[in-house]
Structure formats: structure tokens, C-alpha cells
């Protein structure tokens, strides 16, 4: 008489394979999600670009002037309203964006003076705007370094996001904005 032996896997073998697959999947997930400083820097730069493109489109549609205030560790969007720059706080994406620890911003403007010689005195760049504000007024009504115009143009700039890697070597990500309202991660001529 022959004993029929069933072919297949025991419950223990199936559980062991499932455990190994779970460990492998979690290792892959951890290696993908543990972004290095360069990925974090690029993510911050891309977030800035996306918000700026959104706001630039809004200036064209609304006809309002919007500016960007850049500090060493944060940036925020401000709206020109009734002779003052007012922070935009209704939208989470446009409220003050604090950068992750260790990331610094360095802004370089492509020389656009506040007052042109042939400009009339009654413009919104006139004397009260140029006067130095108190510290409290600077918080309530911050002055932007980058202006976004209703025509779709903006102040040309280079915004450098910098940090250091694990070996303490500096790394950076550069956002460039031109006068026509175009934004680029890196220089425009580097992308050709």
C-alpha cells in the first residue's frame, strides 16, 4: 500500500518566505525614502519654484503686485495692498516657509534699483517706502527683494539653497528667475 504524501509548503515555510519578503521590501523602502542632503535641497528648491510659479500666475490673473521676502532660513510671499506689503497667510503653501535645519538661502539680485531717475515721485517706490522701518513694522509689513508683476515679469534673481553633506562638503541647488518670469533649477544656459 502506498502512502500519498502531499506535495506543498508547510505553514512555517510560507511564513518564513513572507517574513523575508517583508524585510527586503522595508530595506528597499528605507533606502529610497532616506533622501540624502542633495535630494532634500532639490526638493526645497523645487517647492520654492512651484510656489513662485503659482503666485506669478495669480499676479497675472488678479493684477496685483506680489513679492517674495527672502531671509537666511526662510522665505515668504507678500501682497502689496493699500500702500503696504502684507504677508500672505491664508494659503499654507504661500505662508512663511521655514527651511529644514542646516539649509541656508543666499539671494543675488540682478540689479534693479528701487528708484529710476526718470520715475515720477508719486510711484509706490516713493520716499515713505524707502524709509527704514522699525523691527516690528518689518515683521508686519516686510519688504520683498523679489517682485512679481501683473505683466508676468519679475525681478531677475538667483536663489542659492546651500547645506553640507555627511562629509561636511558644501552642496547647493540654484534657482534662477529671469525678467520674463521664467524659473529654472540651475542656470538657463546649463540646460541647453
From TrEMBL:
Keywords assigned: Cell inner membrane, Cell membrane, Membrane, Methylation, Transmembrane, Transmembrane helix
A Gene Ontology BP annotation from the UniProt entry: protein secretion by the type II secretion system
Top-rank taxon, per record: Bacteria
Compartments where located: Cell inner membrane
Annotated GO CC locations: plasma membrane; type II protein secretion system complex
Domain General secretion pathway GspH: 44-168
Coiled coil: none
InterPro entries: N_methyl_site, Pilin-like, T2SS_GspH, T2SS_protein-GspH, TypeII_GspH
Bilayer topology term: Single-pass membrane protein
SUPFAM superfamilies: Pili subunits
NCBIfam families in alphabetical order: IV_pilin_GFxxxE (TIGR02532), typeII_sec_gspH (TIGR01708)
Family affiliation: Belongs to the GSP H family.
Protein name per UniProt: Type II secretion system protein H
The organism of origin for this protein: Shewanella aestuarii
Taxonomic classification: Bacteria, Pseudomonadati, Pseudomonadota, Gammaproteobacteria, Alteromonadales
Gene: gspH
Amino acid at each position: 500500500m502506498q502512502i500519498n504524501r502531499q506535495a506543498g509548503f508547510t505553514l512555517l515555510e510560507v511564513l518564513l518566505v513572507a517574513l523575508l519578503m517583508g524585510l527586503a521590501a522595508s530595506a528597499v523602502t528605507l533606502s529610497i525614502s532616506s533622501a540624502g542632503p542633495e535630494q532634500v535641497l532639490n526638493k526645497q528648491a523645487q517647492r520654492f519654484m512651484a510656489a513662485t510659479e503659482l503666485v506669478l500666475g495669480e499676479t497675472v490673473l488678479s493684477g496685483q503686485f506680489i513679492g517674495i521676502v527672502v531671509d537666511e532660513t526662510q522665505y515668504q510671499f507678500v501682497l502689496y495692498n493699500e500702500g503696504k506689503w502684507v504677508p500672505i497667510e491664508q494659503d499654507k503653501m504661500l505662508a512663511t516657509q521655514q527651511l529644514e535645519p542646516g539649509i541656508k538661502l543666499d539671494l543675488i539680485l540682478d540689479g534693479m534699483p528701487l528708484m529710476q531717475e526718470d520715475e515720477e515721485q508719486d510711484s509706490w517706490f516713493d520716499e515713505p517706502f524707502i524709509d527704514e522701518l522699525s523691527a516690528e513694522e518689518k515683521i508686519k509689513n516686510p519688504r520683498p527683494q523679489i517682485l512679481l508683476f501683473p505683466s508676468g515679469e519679475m525681478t531677475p534673481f538667483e536663489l542659492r539653497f546651500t547645506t553640507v553633506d555627511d562629509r561636511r562638503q558644501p552642496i547647493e541647488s540654484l534657482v534662477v528667475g529671469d525678467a520674463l518670469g521664467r524659473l529654472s533649477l540651475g542656470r538657463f544656459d546649463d540646460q541647453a
